[in-house]
Amino acid sequence: MLRNKVFRTFLVVAAGICLVATGACLAVNPWSGLFCFLGCMGVLSVSILFTRQQYHEIAELSLYLQRVANGEVLLDIRDNSEGELSILKNEIYKAANALTEQADALKLDKSELAAALSDISHQLKTPLTSLGIMADLLEEEHLPPEKRREFLASMRQGLDRMEWLVLTLLKLARLDADAAALTKTPILLSELIKKALSTMLIPIEIKEQTVHVHGEDTLVQCDPNWTVEALGNIIKNAVENTPIGTVIDIAYGKNLLYTFIQVRDNGPGIDNADLPHLFKRFYRGNKKHPSIAEDANSVGIGLAMSRTILRKQNGDIDAMNDNGAIFTLKLYR
C-alpha cells in the first residue's frame, strides 16, 4: 500500500490532523488530549484496515486479469453487493467474458480458414497435376492428331474449372468481407428465373431434361445480379443431380412472410446424413442414385454461396426431400 502515492499522502495528512487535534485538546485538558489521540488513532487504524481490504480485492482482480490473459478458464467474480468495487468486478467480468468469446471465435475462424485453404489447395492441385501430365504427353512427336485434340480439350476444361473456382472463391471472399455492394431493386420473380435459366439451357438440352416454370408473378426487392447467381447455383445443382430425361419443376410466389422460388427435381433426393451439412463450404454429399455419376467439377461451394447471398439480403434457403430434392429460396418481406 505504501507504494501508492495517494495512500502515503493520506497518511501524512491524517497524521497531521491527529497531531493538531491532539495538541489542541492537550491545551485544554491532558485527559482530553489523551482521549483525542486514542480516538484519532482508532479512526486512522480502521481506515487503514478498510483500505488494506480494498487493496487485497484489487490485487485479486489483477491476478484474475492475468489468468484471463493467459487463457485460463474464467471464474465468476461477479458481486451483487453495492459499491464501486462491486461494479468494477462486474464490468471486468463482462469484459473478460467478451474477450474470451472473441478469442474462441477467432480460434474457430482460424480452424475454418485452415480447412478452407486445404480444400482450395486440393481442388487446384488435381487439375494442375492433370495439366502437367497432358502437357508432357503433347510434347511427344508421334502423338496422333485426334489424341492431341482430346488432350487440348481436356486442358481447356481443366483451365475453365480452375477459373470458375477462383472466381467463385473471390465472390465469396467479397461477400464475407462486405465488400460486395448488394443493391436492392424491384424485379419480377419470372425475370429472375428467366435470367438464371439462360445460363443452363445447353446442359439442360444435353441431358434432355424438361423445366416446368409456374407460379404467381410478383415484384421482389433484391439485388438482381447476385440473386440470379444464387438461383443459378440451385438450378445447376438440380440439373447435375437429376437423371437424363427427367423434369425439373420451378414454382414461385409469395405468402404473408416471404417471397419464394422453389426448385424441385424428381431425382433420388438428398441423403438424410447430408441435409445438415449441405450448405457448408466444400461439402460434397453422397449421391444415393447409382445412375448419377458424381460431377467432376463439383467442389461444394455453389450451395454455400447461394445461402450467403440470400442471407445478405434478409433471406434464406433450405432443402428437403419429397420424391426428389426441393430447394426453397426465401426473401423475407
Across the major sheet, the strand order is 2-4-5-7-6
Biggest β-sheet, characterized?
Answer: 5 strands, mixed
- Kindly report the average pLDDT value: 80
Tell me the number of strands.
7
- At CATH level 3, the topology of the largest domain is Heat Shock Protein 90
- Please name the CATH architecture of the largest domain: 2-Layer Sandwich
**Structural classification:** alpha+beta
In the CATH hierarchy, what is the superfamily of the largest domain?
A: Histidine kinase-like ATPase, C-terminal domain
Q: Report the top-level CATH class of the largest domain.
A: Alpha Beta
* Low-pLDDT segments, ≥5 res: 287-297
Could you state the order of secondary-structure elements as H and E?
HHHHEHHEEHEEHEE
Count of DSSP-assigned helices: 8
Shape: elongated
Proportion of beta-strand residues: 5-15%
Helix fraction bin: 55-70%
What number of domains? Answer: 3
Distance between the termini: 63 Å
Catalytic activity: ATP + protein L-histidine = ADP + protein N-phospho-L-histidine
EC number: 2.7.13.3
Pfam families: HATPase_c, HisKA
GO molecular function: phosphoprotein phosphatase activity; phosphorelay sensor kinase activity
Salient structural properties:
333 residues, alpha+beta, Helix Hairpins, Heat Shock Protein 90, 3 domains, 58% helix, phosphoprotein phosphatase activity, phosphoprotein, kinase, phosphorelay sensor kinase activity, BphY/WalK/GraS-like
